[in-house]
Design a protein that fits this description.
538 residues; alpha+beta; Alkaline Phosphatase, subunit A; 2 domains; 7-stranded mixed sheet; 4-stranded antiparallel sheet; 16 helices; 28% helix; disordered N terminus; Type I phosphodiesterase / nucleotide pyrophosphatase; Alkaline_phosphatase_core_sf
Length: 538
Protein backbone atom coordinates (compact mmCIF):
# COMPACT_ATOMS: atom_id res chain seq x y z
CA UNK A 1 0.00 0.00 0.00
CA UNK A 2 1.02 3.60 -0.57
CA UNK A 3 0.79 6.06 2.32
CA UNK A 4 1.46 9.76 2.90
CA UNK A 5 2.77 10.73 6.28
CA UNK A 6 1.30 14.23 6.51
CA UNK A 7 -1.61 15.35 4.34
CA UNK A 8 -4.42 17.64 5.38
CA UNK A 9 -7.04 16.35 2.91
CA UNK A 10 -6.18 12.74 3.49
CA UNK A 11 -5.95 13.04 7.23
CA UNK A 12 -9.38 14.64 7.28
CA UNK A 13 -10.63 11.60 5.38
CA UNK A 14 -9.24 9.21 7.96
CA UNK A 15 -6.08 8.38 5.99
CA UNK A 16 -4.31 6.62 8.80
CA UNK A 17 -7.00 4.04 9.45
CA UNK A 18 -6.46 0.55 8.08
CA UNK A 19 -8.31 -0.29 4.85
CA UNK A 20 -10.96 -2.84 5.84
CA UNK A 21 -14.08 -4.27 4.22
CA UNK A 22 -17.03 -1.90 4.42
CA UNK A 23 -19.54 -2.47 7.19
CA UNK A 24 -22.33 -0.38 8.66
CA UNK A 25 -20.69 2.72 10.10
CA UNK A 26 -20.91 3.65 13.74
CA UNK A 27 -20.06 6.99 15.36
CA UNK A 28 -16.32 7.28 15.72
CA UNK A 29 -15.52 4.53 13.23
CA UNK A 30 -12.59 5.50 11.02
CA UNK A 31 -13.35 3.71 7.76
CA UNK A 32 -12.74 6.14 4.93
CA UNK A 33 -15.15 7.10 2.14
CA UNK A 34 -14.93 9.08 -1.09
CA UNK A 35 -18.12 10.59 -2.50
CA UNK A 36 -17.56 11.57 -6.14
CA UNK A 37 -20.04 14.09 -7.58
CA UNK A 38 -19.87 14.79 -11.31
CA UNK A 39 -22.06 17.61 -12.66
CA UNK A 40 -22.39 17.41 -16.45
CA UNK A 41 -21.81 20.79 -18.07
CA UNK A 42 -20.50 22.59 -14.98
CA UNK A 43 -17.70 25.03 -15.76
CA UNK A 44 -15.16 26.37 -13.32
CA UNK A 45 -16.60 29.80 -14.14
CA UNK A 46 -20.08 28.58 -13.12
CA UNK A 47 -18.80 27.39 -9.76
CA UNK A 48 -16.93 30.66 -9.19
CA UNK A 49 -20.03 32.70 -10.09
CA UNK A 50 -22.32 30.62 -7.89
CA UNK A 51 -20.13 30.58 -4.80
CA UNK A 52 -19.57 34.33 -5.07
CA UNK A 53 -23.30 34.95 -5.37
CA UNK A 54 -24.19 32.39 -2.66
CA UNK A 55 -21.42 32.43 -0.05
CA UNK A 56 -23.49 30.36 2.39
CA UNK A 57 -24.31 27.65 -0.15
CA UNK A 58 -23.33 24.00 0.04
CA UNK A 59 -21.11 24.46 -3.01
CA UNK A 60 -19.36 27.36 -1.28
CA UNK A 61 -18.94 25.08 1.73
CA UNK A 62 -17.16 22.47 -0.37
CA UNK A 63 -14.84 25.12 -1.78
CA UNK A 64 -14.26 26.71 1.61
CA UNK A 65 -13.33 23.41 3.23
CA UNK A 66 -11.31 21.96 0.38
CA UNK A 67 -8.67 22.34 -2.25
CA UNK A 68 -9.88 23.88 -5.52
CA UNK A 69 -8.09 23.27 -8.80
CA UNK A 70 -9.10 26.26 -10.90
CA UNK A 71 -7.43 25.12 -14.14
CA UNK A 72 -8.72 21.56 -14.49
CA UNK A 73 -9.40 20.06 -17.92
CA UNK A 74 -11.35 17.05 -19.14
CA UNK A 75 -10.07 14.56 -21.71
CA UNK A 76 -10.57 15.12 -25.44
CA UNK A 77 -13.12 14.37 -26.81
CA UNK A 78 -15.06 16.05 -23.99
CA UNK A 79 -17.92 13.56 -24.10
CA UNK A 80 -19.65 11.96 -21.12
CA UNK A 81 -18.12 8.53 -21.67
CA UNK A 82 -14.42 9.44 -21.96
CA UNK A 83 -14.94 12.11 -19.29
CA UNK A 84 -16.39 9.72 -16.71
CA UNK A 85 -14.10 6.86 -17.68
CA UNK A 86 -11.13 9.21 -17.24
CA UNK A 87 -12.22 10.14 -13.71
CA UNK A 88 -12.31 6.52 -12.54
CA UNK A 89 -9.41 5.03 -14.55
CA UNK A 90 -6.85 7.83 -14.73
CA UNK A 91 -6.63 7.47 -18.51
CA UNK A 92 -7.32 9.32 -21.74
CA UNK A 93 -8.99 7.69 -24.78
CA UNK A 94 -5.69 6.51 -26.27
CA UNK A 95 -5.26 4.32 -23.19
CA UNK A 96 -8.85 3.45 -22.28
CA UNK A 97 -9.99 2.87 -25.86
CA UNK A 98 -13.15 4.92 -25.19
CA UNK A 99 -13.57 7.93 -27.51
CA UNK A 100 -17.33 8.56 -27.23
CA UNK A 101 -20.53 6.76 -26.26
CA UNK A 102 -21.26 5.99 -29.93
CA UNK A 103 -18.19 5.09 -31.98
CA UNK A 104 -17.05 2.70 -34.70
CA UNK A 105 -14.69 -0.25 -34.49
CA UNK A 106 -12.99 -1.59 -37.60
CA UNK A 107 -12.15 -4.92 -35.94
CA UNK A 108 -15.46 -6.03 -34.39
CA UNK A 109 -18.39 -7.69 -36.13
CA UNK A 110 -21.99 -6.49 -36.53
CA UNK A 111 -24.47 -6.98 -33.70
CA UNK A 112 -26.42 -10.21 -33.96
CA UNK A 113 -23.66 -12.12 -35.76
CA UNK A 114 -23.98 -15.81 -34.85
CA UNK A 115 -21.57 -17.46 -37.29
CA UNK A 116 -18.45 -15.31 -37.40
CA UNK A 117 -16.49 -17.12 -40.09
CA UNK A 118 -15.96 -14.90 -43.11
CA UNK A 119 -17.92 -11.93 -41.74
CA UNK A 120 -16.48 -8.56 -42.75
CA UNK A 121 -15.40 -6.58 -39.66
CA UNK A 122 -16.46 -2.99 -39.01
CA UNK A 123 -19.41 -2.00 -36.82
CA UNK A 124 -21.09 0.78 -34.87
CA UNK A 125 -20.31 0.46 -31.16
CA UNK A 126 -23.35 2.09 -29.61
CA UNK A 127 -23.14 2.24 -25.81
CA UNK A 128 -26.10 4.57 -25.37
CA UNK A 129 -29.76 4.11 -24.48
CA UNK A 130 -30.10 2.12 -27.69
CA UNK A 131 -28.77 -0.92 -25.80
CA UNK A 132 -31.65 -0.96 -23.32
CA UNK A 133 -34.19 -3.75 -23.43
CA UNK A 134 -36.71 -0.90 -23.50
CA UNK A 135 -35.18 2.54 -23.93
CA UNK A 136 -38.59 4.23 -23.56
CA UNK A 137 -38.96 3.13 -19.94
CA UNK A 138 -37.05 4.75 -17.08
CA UNK A 139 -36.26 1.26 -15.72
CA UNK A 140 -34.76 0.34 -19.13
CA UNK A 141 -37.17 -2.59 -19.49
CA UNK A 142 -37.00 -4.20 -16.06
CA UNK A 143 -40.78 -4.09 -15.84
CA UNK A 144 -41.13 -2.37 -12.48
CA UNK A 145 -44.54 -1.17 -11.26
CA UNK A 146 -45.36 2.36 -10.15
CA UNK A 147 -42.94 4.10 -12.49
CA UNK A 148 -41.36 6.58 -12.54
CA UNK A 149 -41.26 6.98 -8.75
CA UNK A 150 -40.83 3.23 -8.29
CA UNK A 151 -37.54 3.37 -10.21
CA UNK A 152 -35.52 3.20 -6.97
CA UNK A 153 -36.39 -0.51 -6.94
CA UNK A 154 -34.35 -0.88 -10.11
CA UNK A 155 -31.66 -3.55 -10.12
CA UNK A 156 -28.14 -2.77 -9.01
CA UNK A 157 -26.87 -4.97 -11.86
CA UNK A 158 -27.89 -3.10 -15.04
CA UNK A 159 -26.07 -5.58 -17.28
CA UNK A 160 -29.30 -7.56 -17.10
CA UNK A 161 -31.09 -4.61 -18.76
CA UNK A 162 -28.86 -4.63 -21.85
CA UNK A 163 -30.09 -6.48 -24.94
CA UNK A 164 -27.11 -8.63 -26.04
CA UNK A 165 -28.48 -8.77 -29.59
CA UNK A 166 -27.63 -5.05 -29.90
CA UNK A 167 -23.98 -5.46 -28.91
CA UNK A 168 -21.02 -5.69 -31.31
CA UNK A 169 -19.46 -9.13 -31.60
CA UNK A 170 -15.86 -10.16 -30.93
CA UNK A 171 -14.58 -12.21 -33.92
CA UNK A 172 -12.25 -14.21 -31.64
CA UNK A 173 -15.04 -15.53 -29.41
CA UNK A 174 -18.09 -14.84 -31.60
CA UNK A 175 -19.76 -13.42 -28.48
CA UNK A 176 -21.25 -9.98 -27.75
CA UNK A 177 -18.96 -7.33 -26.28
CA UNK A 178 -20.54 -5.74 -23.22
CA UNK A 179 -19.47 -2.19 -22.31
CA UNK A 180 -17.27 -3.34 -19.42
CA UNK A 181 -15.45 -5.71 -21.78
CA UNK A 182 -14.72 -2.87 -24.18
CA UNK A 183 -12.77 -0.89 -21.58
CA UNK A 184 -9.04 -1.63 -21.88
CA UNK A 185 -8.03 -0.69 -18.31
CA UNK A 186 -9.23 -1.23 -14.76
CA UNK A 187 -11.11 1.26 -12.57
CA UNK A 188 -10.96 2.57 -9.02
CA UNK A 189 -14.04 0.48 -8.28
CA UNK A 190 -12.18 -2.71 -9.16
CA UNK A 191 -9.18 -1.76 -7.05
CA UNK A 192 -11.44 -0.95 -4.10
CA UNK A 193 -13.28 -4.25 -4.48
CA UNK A 194 -10.01 -6.15 -4.50
CA UNK A 195 -9.22 -4.47 -1.18
CA UNK A 196 -12.51 -5.69 0.25
CA UNK A 197 -14.23 -2.30 0.11
CA UNK A 198 -17.81 -1.63 -0.93
CA UNK A 199 -18.60 0.35 -4.11
CA UNK A 200 -21.66 2.03 -5.65
CA UNK A 201 -22.45 4.47 -8.45
CA UNK A 202 -25.46 6.13 -10.13
CA UNK A 203 -25.52 7.26 -13.78
CA UNK A 204 -27.75 7.84 -16.79
CA UNK A 205 -27.74 4.63 -18.90
CA UNK A 206 -27.30 0.91 -18.16
CA UNK A 207 -24.31 1.11 -20.54
CA UNK A 208 -22.44 2.78 -17.69
CA UNK A 209 -21.83 -0.73 -16.41
CA UNK A 210 -18.58 -0.05 -18.31
CA UNK A 211 -17.36 1.63 -15.12
CA UNK A 212 -17.25 -1.76 -13.41
CA UNK A 213 -14.11 -2.36 -15.45
CA UNK A 214 -12.95 -5.33 -17.53
CA UNK A 215 -13.71 -7.75 -14.69
CA UNK A 216 -17.33 -6.62 -14.70
CA UNK A 217 -17.36 -6.77 -10.90
CA UNK A 218 -16.08 -3.34 -9.84
CA UNK A 219 -19.40 -1.74 -8.87
CA UNK A 220 -21.52 -3.72 -6.45
CA UNK A 221 -24.54 -1.41 -6.62
CA UNK A 222 -24.99 0.40 -9.94
CA UNK A 223 -28.21 2.41 -10.28
CA UNK A 224 -28.86 3.54 -13.87
CA UNK A 225 -32.33 4.94 -14.57
CA UNK A 226 -32.62 5.73 -18.28
CA UNK A 227 -32.50 9.48 -18.85
CA UNK A 228 -33.60 9.28 -22.47
CA UNK A 229 -36.76 7.36 -21.64
CA UNK A 230 -40.20 8.81 -22.28
CA UNK A 231 -41.76 11.12 -19.73
CA UNK A 232 -44.66 13.37 -20.69
CA UNK A 233 -44.28 14.52 -24.30
CA UNK A 234 -40.52 13.98 -24.51
CA UNK A 235 -37.69 12.50 -22.50
CA UNK A 236 -36.25 13.68 -19.20
CA UNK A 237 -33.87 16.10 -20.94
CA UNK A 238 -36.50 18.07 -22.86
CA UNK A 239 -37.67 20.00 -19.80
CA UNK A 240 -35.32 21.07 -17.01
CA UNK A 241 -37.90 20.47 -14.29
CA UNK A 242 -38.12 16.86 -15.50
CA UNK A 243 -34.33 16.56 -15.50
CA UNK A 244 -34.22 17.78 -11.92
CA UNK A 245 -36.85 15.22 -10.96
CA UNK A 246 -34.81 12.52 -12.68
CA UNK A 247 -31.61 13.61 -10.91
CA UNK A 248 -33.54 13.53 -7.65
CA UNK A 249 -33.88 9.75 -7.91
CA UNK A 250 -30.11 9.34 -8.15
CA UNK A 251 -29.62 11.80 -5.29
CA UNK A 252 -32.00 9.76 -3.13
CA UNK A 253 -29.99 6.66 -3.99
CA UNK A 254 -26.85 8.36 -2.67
CA UNK A 255 -28.64 9.40 0.54
CA UNK A 256 -29.72 5.79 1.03
CA UNK A 257 -26.12 4.68 0.56
CA UNK A 258 -24.84 7.27 3.04
CA UNK A 259 -27.28 5.73 5.52
CA UNK A 260 -25.69 2.31 4.98
CA UNK A 261 -28.25 0.78 2.61
CA UNK A 262 -28.20 -0.20 -1.02
CA UNK A 263 -29.54 2.40 -3.48
CA UNK A 264 -33.14 1.17 -3.06
CA UNK A 265 -32.98 1.28 0.76
CA UNK A 266 -33.93 -2.38 0.80
CA UNK A 267 -30.81 -4.03 2.23
CA UNK A 268 -28.34 -2.84 4.85
CA UNK A 269 -24.89 -3.04 3.29
CA UNK A 270 -22.74 -0.40 4.95
CA UNK A 271 -21.79 2.95 3.46
CA UNK A 272 -19.63 2.41 0.36
CA UNK A 273 -15.96 3.34 0.38
CA UNK A 274 -16.27 4.72 -3.16
CA UNK A 275 -19.64 5.96 -4.38
CA UNK A 276 -21.39 8.88 -6.03
CA UNK A 277 -23.43 10.04 -8.98
CA UNK A 278 -23.69 12.11 -12.11
CA UNK A 279 -26.05 15.11 -12.30
CA UNK A 280 -27.66 16.05 -15.63
CA UNK A 281 -29.68 19.13 -14.68
CA UNK A 282 -27.00 21.74 -15.41
CA UNK A 283 -26.30 20.24 -18.83
CA UNK A 284 -29.97 20.31 -19.81
CA UNK A 285 -30.30 23.90 -18.63
CA UNK A 286 -27.33 24.92 -20.78
CA UNK A 287 -28.64 23.21 -23.92
CA UNK A 288 -32.33 24.09 -23.95
CA UNK A 289 -33.26 27.41 -25.64
CA UNK A 290 -36.35 27.61 -23.45
CA UNK A 291 -37.68 25.51 -20.56
CA UNK A 292 -40.79 26.20 -18.53
CA UNK A 293 -41.26 29.46 -20.39
CA UNK A 294 -37.85 30.75 -19.29
CA UNK A 295 -34.70 31.15 -21.42
CA UNK A 296 -32.04 28.49 -21.04
CA UNK A 297 -28.29 28.89 -21.20
CA UNK A 298 -26.37 32.03 -20.40
CA UNK A 299 -27.14 35.72 -20.49
CA UNK A 300 -25.02 38.10 -22.59
CA UNK A 301 -21.78 38.49 -20.68
CA UNK A 302 -21.75 34.90 -19.45
CA UNK A 303 -23.91 34.94 -16.30
CA UNK A 304 -26.28 31.97 -15.95
CA UNK A 305 -29.82 32.60 -17.14
CA UNK A 306 -32.93 31.71 -15.09
CA UNK A 307 -33.16 28.02 -16.07
CA UNK A 308 -29.47 27.47 -15.43
CA UNK A 309 -29.68 29.30 -12.10
CA UNK A 310 -32.52 26.98 -11.11
CA UNK A 311 -30.43 23.95 -12.06
CA UNK A 312 -27.44 25.21 -10.07
CA UNK A 313 -29.71 25.81 -7.07
CA UNK A 314 -31.03 22.25 -7.42
CA UNK A 315 -27.55 20.73 -7.48
CA UNK A 316 -26.55 22.88 -4.50
CA UNK A 317 -29.56 21.62 -2.50
CA UNK A 318 -28.71 17.99 -3.24
CA UNK A 319 -25.08 18.46 -2.23
CA UNK A 320 -26.28 20.19 0.91
CA UNK A 321 -28.46 17.17 1.66
CA UNK A 322 -25.45 14.86 1.18
CA UNK A 323 -23.21 16.85 3.52
CA UNK A 324 -25.96 17.17 6.13
CA UNK A 325 -26.61 13.43 6.05
CA UNK A 326 -22.91 12.65 6.30
CA UNK A 327 -22.76 14.85 9.38
CA UNK A 328 -25.88 13.29 10.89
CA UNK A 329 -24.36 9.86 10.39
CA UNK A 330 -21.03 11.00 11.89
CA UNK A 331 -19.34 10.34 8.54
CA UNK A 332 -18.34 13.91 7.74
CA UNK A 333 -14.85 13.54 9.23
CA UNK A 334 -14.13 10.30 7.39
CA UNK A 335 -15.59 11.25 4.00
CA UNK A 336 -13.92 13.27 1.24
CA UNK A 337 -16.24 14.83 -1.35
CA UNK A 338 -14.75 15.23 -4.82
CA UNK A 339 -16.66 17.60 -7.12
CA UNK A 340 -16.01 17.80 -10.86
CA UNK A 341 -17.68 17.33 -14.26
CA UNK A 342 -17.45 14.87 -17.12
CA UNK A 343 -17.46 17.81 -19.54
CA UNK A 344 -18.34 21.46 -19.90
CA UNK A 345 -20.60 22.91 -22.60
CA UNK A 346 -20.01 25.31 -25.47
CA UNK A 347 -20.60 28.17 -26.03
CA UNK A 348 -20.95 30.15 -22.83
CA UNK A 349 -21.31 33.37 -24.83
CA UNK A 350 -24.68 33.20 -26.65
CA UNK A 351 -23.42 35.54 -29.39
CA UNK A 352 -20.78 32.96 -30.36
CA UNK A 353 -23.35 30.28 -31.26
CA UNK A 354 -23.37 29.06 -34.86
CA UNK A 355 -25.59 26.06 -35.55
CA UNK A 356 -24.59 24.11 -38.67
CA UNK A 357 -26.44 21.23 -40.30
CA UNK A 358 -23.82 18.49 -40.30
CA UNK A 359 -26.20 16.14 -42.11
CA UNK A 360 -26.05 18.27 -45.23
CA UNK A 361 -22.25 18.46 -45.05
CA UNK A 362 -21.84 14.70 -44.75
CA UNK A 363 -24.44 13.94 -47.42
CA UNK A 364 -22.43 16.18 -49.72
CA UNK A 365 -19.20 14.42 -48.78
CA UNK A 366 -20.66 11.00 -49.49
CA UNK A 367 -22.14 12.15 -52.80
CA UNK A 368 -18.83 13.64 -53.90
CA UNK A 369 -17.00 10.43 -52.96
CA UNK A 370 -19.41 8.21 -54.89
CA UNK A 371 -19.22 10.49 -57.92
CA UNK A 372 -15.43 10.22 -57.89
CA UNK A 373 -15.48 6.47 -57.11
CA UNK A 374 -18.50 4.90 -58.84
CA UNK A 375 -19.77 1.69 -57.27
CA UNK A 376 -18.27 2.34 -53.84
CA UNK A 377 -20.27 2.68 -50.61
CA UNK A 378 -20.61 5.92 -48.68
CA UNK A 379 -17.28 7.11 -47.35
CA UNK A 380 -18.64 7.96 -43.89
CA UNK A 381 -19.26 4.78 -41.92
CA UNK A 382 -20.18 6.74 -38.77
CA UNK A 383 -20.20 10.37 -37.72
CA UNK A 384 -20.40 11.71 -34.18
CA UNK A 385 -20.82 15.46 -34.40
CA UNK A 386 -21.74 17.60 -31.41
CA UNK A 387 -19.34 20.52 -31.22
CA UNK A 388 -16.56 18.48 -32.77
CA UNK A 389 -16.62 16.37 -35.91
CA UNK A 390 -15.50 12.76 -35.49
CA UNK A 391 -15.71 10.58 -38.58
CA UNK A 392 -14.98 6.90 -39.08
CA UNK A 393 -14.56 6.08 -42.78
CA UNK A 394 -15.30 2.96 -44.79
CA UNK A 395 -12.05 3.52 -46.66
CA UNK A 396 -9.10 4.33 -44.38
CA UNK A 397 -6.53 4.88 -47.10
CA UNK A 398 -4.52 8.13 -47.22
CA UNK A 399 -6.34 9.03 -50.44
CA UNK A 400 -9.76 8.64 -48.77
CA UNK A 401 -8.90 10.49 -45.58
CA UNK A 402 -7.35 13.34 -47.60
CA UNK A 403 -10.46 13.45 -49.80
CA UNK A 404 -12.68 13.89 -46.75
CA UNK A 405 -10.43 16.56 -45.23
CA UNK A 406 -10.19 18.58 -48.43
CA UNK A 407 -13.92 18.37 -49.08
CA UNK A 408 -14.85 19.65 -45.62
CA UNK A 409 -12.36 22.50 -45.70
CA UNK A 410 -13.83 23.65 -49.02
CA UNK A 411 -17.43 23.97 -47.76
CA UNK A 412 -19.10 27.23 -46.81
CA UNK A 413 -22.69 28.25 -46.27
CA UNK A 414 -25.16 29.59 -43.74
CA UNK A 415 -25.94 28.23 -40.34
CA UNK A 416 -27.98 30.11 -37.75
CA UNK A 417 -27.16 32.00 -34.59
CA UNK A 418 -28.75 32.41 -31.18
CA UNK A 419 -31.74 34.34 -32.59
CA UNK A 420 -32.25 31.86 -35.42
CA UNK A 421 -31.09 34.33 -38.04
CA UNK A 422 -28.75 33.14 -40.79
CA UNK A 423 -25.07 33.12 -39.85
CA UNK A 424 -22.38 32.36 -42.43
CA UNK A 425 -19.64 29.79 -41.97
CA UNK A 426 -16.56 28.71 -43.93
CA UNK A 427 -14.47 25.51 -43.89
CA UNK A 428 -17.50 23.60 -42.54
CA UNK A 429 -17.16 25.58 -39.29
CA UNK A 430 -13.78 23.97 -38.60
CA UNK A 431 -10.50 25.59 -37.62
CA UNK A 432 -8.45 22.42 -38.11
CA UNK A 433 -8.95 18.94 -39.56
CA UNK A 434 -6.80 15.96 -38.62
CA UNK A 435 -7.22 13.02 -40.96
CA UNK A 436 -5.74 9.53 -41.28
CA UNK A 437 -2.37 9.15 -39.58
CA UNK A 438 -2.63 12.75 -38.37
CA UNK A 439 -5.88 11.92 -36.53
CA UNK A 440 -4.16 8.99 -34.83
CA UNK A 441 -1.30 11.28 -33.78
CA UNK A 442 -3.81 13.82 -32.48
CA UNK A 443 -5.00 11.23 -29.96
CA UNK A 444 -1.60 9.64 -29.42
CA UNK A 445 -2.25 6.20 -30.90
CA UNK A 446 -0.71 4.28 -33.75
CA UNK A 447 -2.18 4.76 -37.24
CA UNK A 448 -4.56 1.95 -38.08
CA UNK A 449 -5.88 1.59 -34.53
CA UNK A 450 -9.29 -0.06 -34.89
CA UNK A 451 -11.06 2.42 -32.63
CA UNK A 452 -9.57 5.84 -33.37
CA UNK A 453 -11.59 8.25 -35.56
CA UNK A 454 -10.29 8.58 -39.12
CA UNK A 455 -11.01 12.31 -39.12
CA UNK A 456 -11.22 14.84 -36.30
CA UNK A 457 -12.58 18.30 -37.00
CA UNK A 458 -11.84 21.02 -34.43
CA UNK A 459 -14.60 23.62 -34.57
CA UNK A 460 -14.58 27.39 -34.50
CA UNK A 461 -15.55 28.20 -30.89
CA UNK A 462 -19.34 28.42 -30.68
CA UNK A 463 -20.10 26.03 -33.55
CA UNK A 464 -22.66 23.35 -32.74
CA UNK A 465 -23.56 20.72 -35.32
CA UNK A 466 -27.32 20.33 -35.41
CA UNK A 467 -29.92 20.27 -38.12
CA UNK A 468 -32.39 22.40 -36.20
CA UNK A 469 -32.69 25.03 -33.48
CA UNK A 470 -33.52 22.79 -30.53
CA UNK A 471 -30.27 23.35 -28.64
CA UNK A 472 -27.96 26.25 -27.94
CA UNK A 473 -24.91 24.41 -26.57
CA UNK A 474 -23.09 21.11 -26.87
CA UNK A 475 -19.97 19.28 -25.78
CA UNK A 476 -17.46 16.86 -27.25
CA UNK A 477 -14.91 19.31 -28.59
CA UNK A 478 -11.59 20.69 -27.46
CA UNK A 479 -12.46 24.31 -26.61
CA UNK A 480 -12.08 25.82 -23.15
CA UNK A 481 -15.87 25.95 -22.77
CA UNK A 482 -15.94 22.17 -23.27
CA UNK A 483 -13.01 21.31 -21.05
CA UNK A 484 -12.57 23.92 -18.28
CA UNK A 485 -14.43 22.21 -15.45
CA UNK A 486 -14.23 22.57 -11.66
CA UNK A 487 -12.29 20.16 -9.50
CA UNK A 488 -12.66 20.42 -5.74
CA UNK A 489 -11.36 17.95 -3.16
CA UNK A 490 -13.25 18.88 -0.03
CA UNK A 491 -11.89 17.95 3.37
CA UNK A 492 -8.92 20.19 4.13
CA UNK A 493 -10.86 22.75 6.12
CA UNK A 494 -8.61 25.38 4.57
CA UNK A 495 -10.14 26.61 1.32
CA UNK A 496 -6.87 26.46 -0.59
CA UNK A 497 -6.54 27.12 -4.31
CA UNK A 498 -4.22 25.38 -6.77
CA UNK A 499 -3.88 27.41 -9.99
CA UNK A 500 -1.65 25.06 -11.94
CA UNK A 501 -3.02 22.98 -14.82
CA UNK A 502 -4.41 19.58 -13.84
CA UNK A 503 -6.57 16.98 -15.57
CA UNK A 504 -9.70 15.24 -14.35
CA UNK A 505 -7.95 11.92 -14.99
CA UNK A 506 -6.00 12.74 -11.82
CA UNK A 507 -9.15 12.15 -9.79
CA UNK A 508 -8.68 8.36 -10.08
CA UNK A 509 -5.27 8.03 -8.44
CA UNK A 510 -6.30 10.64 -5.86
CA UNK A 511 -9.32 8.53 -4.87
CA UNK A 512 -7.08 5.55 -4.27
CA UNK A 513 -4.60 7.61 -2.28
CA UNK A 514 -7.48 8.91 -0.14
CA UNK A 515 -8.39 5.29 0.62
CA UNK A 516 -4.75 4.42 1.37
CA UNK A 517 -4.62 2.20 -1.72
CA UNK A 518 -1.85 2.23 -4.30
CA UNK A 519 -2.61 4.58 -7.26
CA UNK A 520 -0.33 2.45 -9.42
CA UNK A 521 -2.85 -0.36 -9.09
CA UNK A 522 -4.56 1.42 -11.99
CA UNK A 523 -3.44 0.31 -15.45
CA UNK A 524 -3.88 3.79 -16.94
CA UNK A 525 -1.91 5.44 -14.15
CA UNK A 526 1.04 3.21 -14.96
CA UNK A 527 0.62 3.69 -18.72
CA UNK A 528 0.28 7.49 -18.67
CA UNK A 529 2.09 8.38 -15.46
CA UNK A 530 -1.08 10.03 -14.12
CA UNK A 531 -0.26 11.77 -10.87
CA UNK A 532 -2.19 12.27 -7.67
CA UNK A 533 -3.56 15.81 -7.53
CA UNK A 534 -0.96 18.26 -6.21
CA UNK A 535 -1.18 20.42 -3.13
CA UNK A 536 -2.65 17.80 -0.83
CA UNK A 537 0.54 17.40 1.20
CA UNK A 538 1.29 19.76 4.02
Amino acid sequence: MSRIRTCSVLAAAGLFATAVPATADQPGQQQRHVLLVSVDGLHQSDLAWYTAAHPQSALAGLVGHGTSYTHASTPVPSDSFPGMVGQVTGGNPATTGVYYDATYNHALLPAGTKNCAGVQPGVLVDYTEDLDRNKDSVDAGQGLPNLPDGVLKMTGDPRTLIDPAKLPVDPRTCKPVYPHQYLRVNTVFEVARQAGLRTAWSDKHPAYEMLSGPSGTGIQDLFTPEINSVVGSGDWTTDNAATQRYDGYKAQAVLNEIDGYDHSRTTQTGTPAVFGLNFQSVSTAQKLPVSGGQPGGYLPGGAPGPVLRSALDFVDRQIGAFTAELKRRHLDKSTTVVLSAKHGQSPIDPAALTRIDDGALLDGLNAAWRAAHPGTPDLVALSTDDDAMLLWLSDRSPAATSFAKNYLLAQSGNGNGITGAAKPFVHSGLTAVHAGADAARYFGVRPGDARVPDLVGVVVPGVVFTGGKSKIAEHGGASADDRAVPLVVSGTGRGTVETGAVETTQIAPTILRLLDLDPRSLDAVRAEGTRVLPGLRE
